[in-house]
Amino acid sequence: MSRADPPTRSTPSLPDLDTRTRWRLAVGALAVVAGLGVLLLSHRLFPYHSTNHDEAVYLHQAAMLLEGQLVLRPPVDVTFRPWFFVKAGPELYSKYTPVTAVVFAVGMALGDPRLSLAGVAAALVVLTYAVGAEAFDRRTALLGAVLVAVSPLYLVQTALFLPYAPALAFELLFAWAYLRSVRTGSRRLAAFAGLAIGVAFFARPYTAVLFATPFVLHACWTLGRAVGVDELDPVPVTLRQGLVAACGLLGVALTLAYNARMTGDPFTFPYQVFAPRDDLGFGTRRILGYERDYTPALALEANARVIRALLTRWVVAGPLGTVLAAVGLGTTALRVRRVVARRDGGPVAAAVSSDPVDDTDTRLAPRLVLAGLFVTVVAGNVYFWGNLNVLGQLEAAGDGLISLYGPYYHFDLVVPTALFAALGLRLLAGRWRSLAASRFDGHTAGRVAVAGLIVGALVVGGPAAAVAAGPVAENAETSDQLAAAYAPLEPRPPVGVVFLPTPYGDWLHHPFQALRNEPTFDGRTVYAMRERQFDVVDAYPDRALYRYGYRGEWAPFVGEPVAPRLYRIRHVRDERVTVHTSLGVPAGVDTMTVRLAGGGQSTYYSVPGPPDELDARIVVTDGEAGLRGTDVTPVNPNDTSVPVHARDEVLLEVNAEYAPGNAFAYRLETPVALDEGEYRVLTPHPQVCRGADRCDGEAAWVPETAMPGVTVETRLSTGRPANATANGTTDPTDGGTT
User: Fold this and answer.
1) Contacting residues for 711 by C-beta, under 8 A, at least 6 apart
2) Range of 709's domain?
3) What sign does the dihedral 286-287-288-291 (CA atoms) show?
4) Are residues 647 and 531 in the same domain?
5) CA–CA separation, 551 vs 528, rounded Å?
6) Are residues 674 and 615 in the same domain?
7) What is the value of pTM for the model shown?
8) Of 56, 560, 616, 705, which one is least surrounded by beta carbons within 10 A?
């Protein structure tokens, strides 16, 4: 090399890296793979979100936070109330605290909220390793992180916009910082641990309390021991644990301040305002119209079913993973007994002494704390009736949200289960290597050991893949049904206002959580319920109007498809408005009867013939609505119209009967309003039902799925010439028919 040549810098090869760096690279690579996998899973498996409609609540909150809003102020009362939002005068606020929404807002600000899901998924893997390294060793911790990443409950929950994975991330951050602060004496880590569990409390108070309880018990024991043992200085321990408690209480204070802002009372949570009996405890529990008597016996039965589902289907490798975790827990118990024996039969608490027998025993304290989670999480959830609700019908197997999304109130157990399963797996692998070494010599022993480990990996990996594949396949089927339901709104919803049906009550995002408004209610598409439709029209006078409907029962979670429809709504106004109606009459119909209803009254018409097509006109004028046309004859010539009020709905109901007991019905609901001496009318909402009593909002007329001969055409006109378009009058050639 000449002097002019620049000196070269050698890059260290992988063997040159120190041990800690290699472990960090390994867990970092695993975290990246897990995060990308969850990102792909969320996009492919849940493109329209899940049937757990809480997702829309958190996403709506995230969008609100990016706009600097804690509350919503909709332009029309009632019509724009999202699912799980509390009404407080002109404002609406979520029943949930904003911590989870903040997490999702990060990804939303970056262009895709699912980036937050990937970040949380990666963080859980890293934190599982970090906690495992404190409680076990690096190999067990890395294996535990792998087992977490392939756990069905982890895969499903991290791919959803729900609070359980973000809350666990903050809890694991607390666990790692706490355990490391105990080991190193770091006060900075102690403060960090307190802040982390404080945030977790703000996000999900009861969940954080159940998670923190074993750590609190350990803190109390260390404080007691520091005070009770003469050779120990209690000041460092007291200061360190005091920092954990003080910083944790900051989260409690923040929670109380948020409560005061939202509800007016620091000790009243928003969810209590939404449903006062939807809380902890036994007795009558209630949310909206659903009520149960949650007795201790029912609580034990329900939670036993939940735990069985967790251990057999939702942890890694199902029953096999549970057995491995039991082996790990048993090993920990045996080591505690060994420590106790070495201390001449001292109390079990000696197992967590800061003066251990050997290096392995230094990790018994963190291990016991993690094992304590099985007690606190399981026992604590018995007191919460949500674990009954996730089961759906208790006597029906595979019912409820648990069948698709797992026992998510027990999500905190995924990590300790995986870590103890990793310990059990390593123990069995070590026993196999020892057995091979004792039976064979040299290279033969090594080959036998490797072959056995490969077989063991297949034995564990096969059930793990099979168990994880079950929930994925079921959710894929549900998403297929949702994709079919949203098809008329793809690839992008129309620019304008879309009125939605309300099969689950007067809520937006329930069930249509993929259809969300901007927090300012001025987005490209505005979604509204069918309440106060004319007020919505007035709030958006320059927007096109649409109505979304469907045929069939909305039950994608049981594989029931619906036939959807999106059609344009016309809005006309005049002193006289006519709704032209043409209804197909299938061959074989013997008799037809017509009912016109409005203003709390009804009038009836007969249909001579009947004709091949029934043509009639609903005429709204002079405070009443009447039916006109040569195909209809009033049953009572003196009763041919119904009154129309200021805000009303004129209903046309036509029953067509083939034979007694074999009939169907047309039902057309026409919104009508009286405003400054003029009538305002919107395009009717048509339904075709197997009997008038079955027109319940889930029987929208969809041409592609209609019965042979069943057709519906409607057109609005005013007293002006037919080609007039001023003031909203519809030209029949511009799509005004349905």
Assistant:
1) 582, 583, 584, 613, 703
2) 570-728
3) negative
4) no
5) 19
6) yes
7) 0.90
8) 560
